[in-house]
Amino acid sequence: MRVRFSILAICITLLLQASLSVAAPYKSWTQLTPVQQEALQPLATQWDSLSTKLQKNLLHAAKRYPKLTPEQKQLFQNRLEKWSKLTPEQRKRAREKFSAFSKVPPEHREQVKQMVRQQEASKAAASGVPPVTPVR
Amino acid sequence: MNQKFYPEQIKQLLNRSLAQLDQPTLTRLRDARAQALARHDAHSTAPAFAWATLWTDHRHAADSHHKSHYLAAIVLLAALLFSGAAYWHHTVDHDVSDVDIAILTDDLPIEVYVD
Question: Is the ipTM of this complex over 0.85?
Answer without folding.
Answer: no
